[in-house]
Structure formats: C-alpha cells, structure tokens
C-alpha cells in the first residue's frame, strides 16, 4: 500500500480542517474529499456523540466498500458500539486523547487491519457479543459467525479426517443430512470444496 487513502468527517468544519491539514503533511497519507469517502481505506470520524444520524451516515458510506473506521468520540453507547463494529469499526479514541500524532498512528494501524479499543469499550463490546450469542443467536442454533451449531459440528469432524459416513454415524444423522448441511454451508459461504470449508473454519476459529 503506497498511500493510505483517508476520508475525514467531523462534527464541525474547524475540527475537520485542522485534522485534514495535519494528515496531508504526512507523505504516506492521502486525504480524499468527503464525497469520495467510499473510496477511502480508512474513514476517520470525529464527533462528540454517536447519534442515530451518525450511525446512518456510517452505514451509508461503509456499506459501499470495506473502509476501516477510526472513531473519535466522547460518548459511545453499547448499541452504537455494536452497530459501528458491524460497519467496520477498527479503532476508538477518546476525544480527550486525540492528539494529532495519535490520529496518524490510529489511521495507519487501521489501514493494516489492527484494532485499538479503550479497556472500558472492549469490555462493553465483549458483553454485547456475549449477550447477542446468549439471547439471539444461541436460541436459534446459530454461532456468532452465522453458522448453525450442526454446521460447526460437521466442520469439526471433517477437519478430523472423517468422511460423510463417519460423520453421519458420529452425529446420528443420515448421510443425506450431512451432505445437505455441507452443501448449504458451502453455497451460503461461497466455499469451493471441503478443504476450503475446513480452511474457512480454521480461519474463523471454529475448530
């Protein structure tokens, strides 16, 4: 990556101008206009409070590409934290700690895929994920990566080297059921074959 493309959005024009000026002084960073935000590698958003309007704007921009989100704010509720993580939140910086160099460091780290969350927000995020699994996904037989529990079981046994007949025997399923589970999983996740499915499960930490 020769240059990190960064779009900057702020709650006021003076803040934005100051941040843009500093970022533009760095040779490894190129600031793109707000109207080209969907082209950016990193979207840097600076707001006092994450409102419904801010979340709507993030959804609008980040649904069009895979930009990493760096958020500078003074207040972030659990629901908004969960929503922004879904849209690509990588780093949160308390506004009181948002020095110019801290922003540069966060932007470059985000571009490399590295995340940074204050301890209190990390705890808030983990509690939110736990609650989501316990109250929403678990009762529906789903995992946090969108797989059904039996899909995970089949993947684990397949990774152990079992064939269809052995998996069926182990799980007390028919062979047709095992094949249907695998077919549904590979179609939905766009996996090419069984080795690709096992590799996906390993990458997602399922097995």
Automatic annotation (TrEMBL):
One Pfam assignment: GerE
One MF annotation (Gene Ontology) recorded for this entry: DNA binding
Listed SMART domains: HTH_LUXR
Residue stretches making up the HTH luxR-type domain: 140-205
Keyword annotations: DNA-binding, Transcription, Transcription regulation
Keyword Aminoacyl-tRNA synthetase: no
InterPro entries: Sig_transdc_resp-reg_C-effctor, Tscrpt_reg_LuxR_C
Domain of life: Bacteria
GO biological process: regulation of DNA-templated transcription
Protein name: Response regulator transcription factor
């Amino acid at each position: 990556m020769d240059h990190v493309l960064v779009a900057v959005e702020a709650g006021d024009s003076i803040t934005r101008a100051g941040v843009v000026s500093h970022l533009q002084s760095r040779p490894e960073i190129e600031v793109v206009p707000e109207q080209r935000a969907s082209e950016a590698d990193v979207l840097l958003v600076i707001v006092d409070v994450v409102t419904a309007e801010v979340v709507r704007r993030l959804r609008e921009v980040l649904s069009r590409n895979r930009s990493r989100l760096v958020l500078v704010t003074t207040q972030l509720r659990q629901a908004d934290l969960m929503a922004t993580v879904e849209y690509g939140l990588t780093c949160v910086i308390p506004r009181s700690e948002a020095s110019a160099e801290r922003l540069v460091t966060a932007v470059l780290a985000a571009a490399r895929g590295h995340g940074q969350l204050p301890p209190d927000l990390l705890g808030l995020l983990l509690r939110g994920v736990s609650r989501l699994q316990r109250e929403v996904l678990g009762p529906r037989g789903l995992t946090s990566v969108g797989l059904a529990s039996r899909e995970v079981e089949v993947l684990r046994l397949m990774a152990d080297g079992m064939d269809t007949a052995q998996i069926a025997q182990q799980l007390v399923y028919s062979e047709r059921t095992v094949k249907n589970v695998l077919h549904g999983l590979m179609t939905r996740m766009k996996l090419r074959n069984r080795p690709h499915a096992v590799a996906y499960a390993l990458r997602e930490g399922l097995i």
